[in-house]
Amino acid sequence: MHLRDAITEYLDNSKEKISKLHDAVADSVKEGLDRSFAEMVRVINKLELPPLLIFYYQFLTREVCQAFANMDGDLSSKENRFIQYLLRQISVLCEDYDATSAGQSRAVAEEKLEQVLQELDELVGIATVKDKVKETANFARIQQLRIAQGLKPIPTSYHSVYTGNPGTGKTTVARLMGRIYKSLGVLKKGHLIECDRSALVGEYVGQTAPRTNAVIDSALDGILFIDEAYGLVKEHEDYGQEAIETLLKRMEDDRDRLIVIVAGYPEEMDRFIHSNPGLQSRFNRFIEFPDYTPLELCRIFALMCRKNGLTLTPASKEKVLHHFACLHKERGENFGNARLARNCFEAVINAQASRLSASGTFDTRALTVLEAQDLNTPAQDSLEKYRESRKGYIIKCMNCNQVYSWSPDLEIIDAICTRCGKTYNCEFGELLP
């Protein structure tokens, strides 16, 4: 049934109630309807709601006006003029909203998006991850613009699989994704709820579904981040499968309010996704997080130093470079990546504190400078041999791969490439083979 017909039928069946309502508002209806609609536009604009919403209200208002006009089949010229006046006023408000208010709301959203993307760009390394995130953000932005203009969005899912070793930035990027989706209006809150098997699976019959539902409820309008999600699948049947089935159902029931990101080691995550047809059909976005290079680990370490007001001497910079090169070369599947840099930083500042306490020197320089002796490294022998070889160090422009010589004595963080004219990081160099 057409909406107008439904309203007309309701009015025909409720003439007594409508008559009383008409008597109550007759004196103020002309003053109130257009003003109330203007206020509605103002509130929608203030809350940055989709432009489509205001046009939906415009449509309903037109239908109601038409229903009132046809209620008794006798429309006076005065009533007709008022209805036409009201519709003109509403049309003007909608046109103004479409041209200014909605445009401003989108501008604010895009500005916020750019802020989040800038934070993404400031992360060390993970260039391929950044490209994937921006690709998803661009798609989400176009989807929201389609919806805002009353077009049908392309069916899609934002549920994602993040694969990589520990410390490669999976959780950090997931938090940024939540903020990206919020800035675009995909998610209302954009917060991140982290969990693992222990938070979802119960120990006894009847515990798992309520636990899983409670965690999902806390993540609504945001992102549910399940670390080491393959822990839900065991060789021997247990309650993990119940958690998966509950999750799949909620992903469908709350598809407009929930985005799920599952994360873990690459091979284990591949087996997890292929263990259940429902998982395969719902997760179609994959991002691989590579291990950090020795140079990137040095930059992460240096960033921690700067954030805490600490500086490195040339000798300590060289030692840090060899330290991470050695650990990276011998890395296994449990390689800590950024966590390794964090652990190294904490060990160094503790060593500095012990050194200063023993020496009794507490001036500003002593408190803010990390010396080479503060870093205990298995790379000491390789460092001395490298120095004896006199190979030196190099640094590459990340934009055009132009190679320059590098020295630990270099005191600048960024330089301009003479080849491409772009800025590149030169805080640390690389060892020659």
What does this structure look like?
There is one protein chain. This protein has 433 residues and is of the alpha/beta class. The chain has 3 domains: 3-104; 123-289, Rossmann fold; 294-431, Helicase, Ruva Protein, domain 3. 58% of the residues lie in helices and 11% in strands. The chain has 17 helices and 12 strands. The strands form 4 sheets. The chain has a 5-stranded parallel β-sheet. Strands 9-8-12 form a 3-stranded antiparallel β-sheet. Helix 3 (29-46) packs parallel to helix 5 (77-122), helix 4 (51-69) packs antiparallel against helix 5 (77-122) and helix 6 runs parallel beside helix 7 (170-184). The longest helix has 46 residues, at 77-122. 28% of the residues are buried. The model is unreliable at 24-31, 46-50 and 107-111 (pLDDT under 50).
Question: Could you tell me the mean pLDDT?
Answer: 82
Largest beta-sheet details: 5 strands, parallel
- Number of spatially distinct domains: 3
Q: Which structural category fits the helices and strands?
A: alpha/beta
Shape: elongated
Strand and helix order: HHHHHHEHEHHEHEHHEHEHHHEHEEEEE
CATH top level of the largest domain? Alpha Beta
Q: Which regions have little confidence, pLDDT < 50, spanning 5+ residues?
A: 24-31, 46-50, 107-111
Return Rg in Å: 31 Å
The CATH topology of the largest domain is Rossmann fold
Describe the strand arrangement of the main beta sheet, using strand numbers.
Answer: 2-3-4-1-5
Architecture per CATH nomenclature, i.e. the level-2 architecture of the largest domain? 3-Layer(aba) Sandwich
Provide the helix percentage: 55-70%
Terminal CA distance reads 77 Å
Percent of residues in β-strands: 5-15%
CATH-assigned homologous superfamily of the largest domain: P-loop containing nucleotide triphosphate hydrolases
Give the strand tally.
Answer: 12
Question: Count of helical segments?
Answer: 17
